[in-house]
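anyone seen this seq b4? input:
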Amino acid sequence: MEDQLFKEVMEIKQELGKSVVIPAHHYEMDEIVKLADFLGDSYKLAVDCAATEAEYIVFCGVMFMAEGASLLAKPHQKVLIPDKSAGCPMAEMIDAIQAEKIYSKLSNLCDREIIPIVYMNSYADMKAFCGKRGGTVCTSSNAAKIVKHFLDQGKSVLFAPDYNLGINTANQLNINKNEIVTVDKKLSFDNDSFSSLSDCKNAKMFVWDGFCHVHKVFTLDDINSFRQTYSQSQDDPNAISEKNINVIVHPECSEDVVNASDYSGSTSMIWKTVKAGKAGSVWAVGTELRFVERMANEFKDKTVVPLKKSVCHNMSKITLEKLKNTLTVILNNKTAESPSDIITVAEEYKENAKKALKLMIEIVESGK
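predicted toks r here
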């Protein structure tokens, strides 16, 4: 049944030809990945979508990604997603109303100008808030470069919504703990180093207390258990020091997990690092399960295992059946009659959200 459905989707895709492109995130199911025209993490997909000329972009990922594609799309292009309920809990942990309140409060306390930076895992209102305030978007692959860009100008940063990515980025840039303030959605402050709000005047980073459900589950115990299990299976007692046994995680994992790992980085970085690992090496990967299993099947000269099984259930909502339905809508040219099928961004957000996305690409592509 599944093979037949895959064949049917492929036939419709071929009939549509170059009028349609299907971008897919690494966390999607294998059958969706096989049908994708390009595959990547959120940054690569943003760049690839901006470059395509296809009339229809059918985004296999979650809503904030489809929104991003819609913002960067050319006037003749339409963006669709097979399931609009494929959301992101992290993205829902902050909105522009909350952000405006905290930004105003912090601006009155901090001696530096504060630049808002929002993770790609956010909705259009937050991207627009950043664009309006001279800020930008970042991804896990470029967060450090984006933050450094503004710190080098003597400015402070409000980073949202992922706390772990914010803290791990701060560590990467060697920012002192007493220059970081954690901010939660109640607009309170949580940092023992700050005795009062007035102490915020010297902070370099204000980090929102959001998180990713997929990456929050990984712990130090998982790393210790993996190392113990695989070190005992090694014939060579020097195997660990020779990097035969490796832990690599996504920077949305907690600070202690990232610090205890051998490597951390974006989804694309994880793929490239494991691929480049020497034959016979062992890799525990702390990120979404389907992506880890795909690497295990791809890199058979290595042992690749999940640090723990953690699935993004929103990515799971994009199924072959739903993709077929979306492509059929396009084939029947119903999109002109069914605007609800097309991903649109409210006019009030478009200009500034696009501005924030383009500034991210400009900073990263500049090579500076």
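Residues 114 and 129 are 13 Å apart (CA to CA). Residues 91-213 form a domain with the Rossmann fold fold (CATH 3.40.50). kinda curious what u guys think
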